[in-house]
Design brief:
The complex is a heterodimer of chains A (296) and B (397). Chain A has 296 residues and is α/β, with parallel strands linked by helices. Chain A is built from 15 helices and 9 strands. Chain A folds into 3 domains: 149 residues, P-loop containing nucleotide triphosphate hydrolases (Rossmann fold, 3-Layer(aba) Sandwich), CATH 3.40.50; 37 residues, no CATH class; 95 residues. The longest helix of chain A has 16 residues. The chains are: A alpha/beta (296), B alpha/beta (397).
Amino acid sequence: MPSASIPREAIAARLAEVGYVADRDLATALWMMDALKRPLLIEGEAGVGKTEVAKALAAVHGAELIRMQCYEGLDVSSSLYEWNYQRQLLAIKAREGTGASVAEIEARIFSEDYLLERPLLSAIRRKTPPVLLVDEVDRADEEFEAFLLELLSDFQVTIPEFGVIRALTIPRVVLTSNATRELSDALRRRCLYHYLDFPDVDREAAILLARQPRLDANFAVQIARMVGLLRTEDLKKVPGVAETLDWAATLAGLGVEDLRQEPEIVHATLIALLKTRADRAAISPETTSRLVGKVA
Amino acid sequence: MGAHAFAVEGSGPGPAMRRRLAGFVVTLRDAGFIIGQAEAQDAARLIAGPLADRPEGLRAGLRALFASRRSDLARFDELFDAFWRARGVRSVVRIDAEALAARSPRRFQHGPSANDARLEPSQIGGARGRDDGAAEGGGRQGGASAHEALSKKDIAAFEGERERAEAAEVAERFARAMRERLTRRERARRRGRRLDLRATIRLSVAHGGEPLDLKFRRRKIKPLRLVALLDASGSMEAYVAFFTRFLHAVSQAFRESEAFLFHTRLAHVSSALKERNPARALDRLALMAAGVGGGTKIGECLTAFNRRHARRVIHSRTCVMILSDGYDTGPPEVLASAMRELRRRCKRIVWLNPLTGRRGFEPSARGMQAALPYLDLLAPAHNLESLAALEPYLARI
């Protein structure tokens, strides 16, 4: 394996090929996921691109991405498996009067044909290891977290009516959290940890160029600086990387090539970055031109 | 996946390196990192792998493995530098002199408490064990009667260390009992009536497919979350220590709670209160809340809370509890608008004012006046009894 000697650089390069600009620490963490077969827990503000990491990882390995969005009240039937009740009822009805015994019917309707796979189950039953993204795990309840921990350490699932299902392959697991709730120590210990911050100017500019190759390099730096400055303002919702990309696309679409040229357009297009009324009011045209002045 | 693994055996690290690594793990554990055997073994594998070729790679790798929350990251780097650099493992380990200088005073402050940490765990365990026993076995009734006299006395009038310690203990036990009863009530009251199809189908097999026995699913309920904002200004001085103990107990007992402290600025102190040992929690809290004295800016602090924390800590079953005497040195309009915004976000706002219990009290403080229209409850909190009166109210949220 040629990448063994300098794993981080190799991973970073492969991520860059699929349009994701990773810093070195993240590249290290991603490499370690494979080396140690541990899940990766990524924390960070909303909008820093946590979910993108999983997508990029899937692209790098040419693997399927299975995404599970967590929410409060998420339970086994919507995360792991569920029986297909309609078909089961139908099957029972169809066998009425055929003289089939209860045991026979039971064996029939609790077979694999009637099993509906949910994300976690399908993630461990693939022939090629997929990337499993457990998004916003902090939103799920503690019970679910405990269950997830068990799954992540044993990679097997017990279905009472059916038996034990062992993982065919071990998926690469990425968990993300917005820290709305403190996760358990056990889960944290099990996972590798990476804190994803907003990218610095250079990296954000690199992201812009990777995603929008036709952008002028200097202009990309200008945009990245401008967004960086905006993030230091007192905002209710800090613009994320996706917003930066939107804004850059907007500006490019309007034919702007330098922020200093078109102050009105720059200010008007800030709606791509500022998503609440209060934030919109907080950044006046004067503030915009002051910030643009700093950027140039 | 085999292709991605790297060779562990063969080129493994020498025994000296392994010993150093073990020493490092011990250092980290001493510093409060939770590291299991599996993690330590994985670290040994990393040391043997290509990451170890460069100190920075090794640092990043071990950090991803051992750190498990954001606050760990800086601390890990500090410990890594101190440990590996002092042993002179590789001269290339980069040390940022400036950052190190900036860190040292903080480390100095933490010194004594870090020592406590190493000495006390067993003590804490013992003490807690006894406490729990008392709370469970008959302690509940006993707690109320034994401390009858104390419970009516104004907290500000408590004298001497012993009486204060006793009051704090009562507050703690009360908070635990409160939590226990609240959950029990919840369980009894809310029964979901959603059909559990999975179980119903299973039962129907015995009846030839007729779903005769219906199984119902219990509704999941969000746990009640308590967000407490404690006024730590000079005018509250007599009450702060007591309320802090109360909050400490609450945050230990409630599964979900957040605590903030404010005077001229707002400090998020939940992490300090998560500390099991109350004395250490108070120490950490004092450090976190250290700031300039002189006046209380309730309005400003609430505004800061709304902007920075409210989105994260408030959900649909959140009760915000403000513990303050309402003496605000800022303009009342600021407080009013902050309260208005808070009102929009959360289910209940309770204001506990230790002055309310005094005879002839009128909520005349300007701050109190400004906040009054947005409150669900303005309650006295000058003695233990008044805190106990809150419980049925919280149960209804």
